[in-house]
Amino acid sequence: xxxxxxxxxxxxxxxxxxxxYENISSERKIILQPLLDFIQNKVSKEQEIRLNFxxxxxxxxxxxxxxxxxxxxxYFNIKNVFCYSGGTESTALSPMIATTLKQSxxxxxxxxxxxxxxYTIKFGKxxxxxxxxxxxxxxxxxxxxxxxALLTCSQADGGCPFIAGAEExxxxxxxxxxxxxxxxxxxxxxxxxxxxxxxxxCYVFSQIKL
Length: 210
Known about the structure:
With 210 residues, this protein is α/β, with parallel strands linked by helices. It is 37% helix and 19% strand. The protein has a single domain (49-205), classed as Rossmann fold, CATH 3.40.50.2300. It starts with 9 loop residues before the first helix and ends with a helix.
């Protein structure tokens, strides 16, 4: 019996099909290799894969990484992947992240307003939503053990030398699109960062041997 293929929203599928992994530099592939190895090891042992993407404020890069990693796992049919995100402190998921993801075809709804809104983020009509909101990396919403801690910003990487419960601690830092907030380049730079993260997460999952 062949596995059931995830049905994606067509716009997201088109975005992923357009990725060219040859555009990822050899330096970045070296940085991504420990994540690839962690996932491959779990798949080979038929174990659950928990990935906790950690940044300072859990507002931009960690959410993009979480959402695109979960999407990539579905696209490449890697089962039992559970992606999370958190910060060294909690703030709010940036509205620009929601806007940027919508432009790539994600269906996003706000289920709670306030200083720290809660979003549902879907990549397929029949898929469970990813719940997006800002939280600390050790929040009860996130796993307590048997996970990889992925540091997506250099500040969190430097400020978190030890992550309790993590099996592995893997820095995969990205430049912060926040520096372009309220500039003419804002929309373009958020899209660039989202697509970089998306390409790299898809590259990682595309390499996994089942």
